Amino acid sequence: MKKIATIIVTYNGEKWIETCLDSVLKSSYNTDLFIVDNASTDGTLKMVNNFPLYLEKLRFNAGFGYANNVALKELLASNYDYFFLINQDVYLEVNVLEKLLSFAETHPEMGIVAPIQFDGKGEKIDTNFQQYINLSEEKENYFETSFCNAAAWLVSKSCLEMVGLFNPLFQHYGEDRNYCERAKYHQFKIAIVKETKVLHDRDQQMSTEKAIKLAKIKLLTIFLNPTKTKSESLTSGLINVFGISKYLFKKYRSYTSVFELMKEYLVLFKKRNELELEKNKQK
């Protein structure tokens, strides 16, 4: 029987954490549960203490990637075969982990295997997640994709050993895109498995400010993409400045996005040699 460690990073998650943990413990496939808490100030820790799990409490909000790395550094040396990373606002269907494991075992080339994310009521596919599916290549029982967010990832031990941990340059957002690109560089593939379902209980609407923030982070992932040469990263980044700005204007009527993204591109351009060294370290 394959051993799975489920890792959840928490931060002020009292709204979701009991439902999330209940769903993990009711899973048809047994998994050990690990929580890394980013210095929550609400009732999260009080709720967590009512569940059978391992808890690591950080003294500050270190972000998603850093907190996951705290657990993964320790657990990689253990005898776990897979690591299931889920957000505190994700709820599992009872057999989803069993389905993901079954798929992963028959597709060892897949370093990251993900379920389909639905909204918090389970009525329709999460708005952003649908975009990942649309950009994927459909296969018989899965979608082969270049990216899906890390709200629910089953990662193989071989992938983590080869690719490494999350890049600490990304505090929150972007670390998952960077990790997918590094995984692809190391010849691992990424799959979204059909007939799977988790509920991602988050706001389905995105503000203009958050959209611009995510666009800036995407520029950083382009500069750090190990599958691109230095010149390719510079060119791709510039193309994205105008491509993303056009999209943001069309969707949000954002007149300032092109200036914000061009300013961010120039900041990264000045750091291009430093970022290139960081990119090579992540290979």
TrEMBL record:
InterPro entries named in the record: Glyco_trans_2-like, Nucleotide-diphossugar_trans
Pfam families in UniProt: Glycos_transf_2
Domain Glycosyltransferase 2-like positions: 7-158
SUPFAM superfamilies attached to this UniProt entry: Nucleotide-diphospho-sugar transferases (SSF53448)
Highest taxon above the source species: Bacteria
GO molecular function: glycosyltransferase activity
Keywords: Glycosyltransferase, Transferase
Family statement: Belongs to the glycosyltransferase 2 family.
Protein name, per record: Glycosyltransferase 2-like domain-containing protein
UniProt organism field: Kaistella jeonii
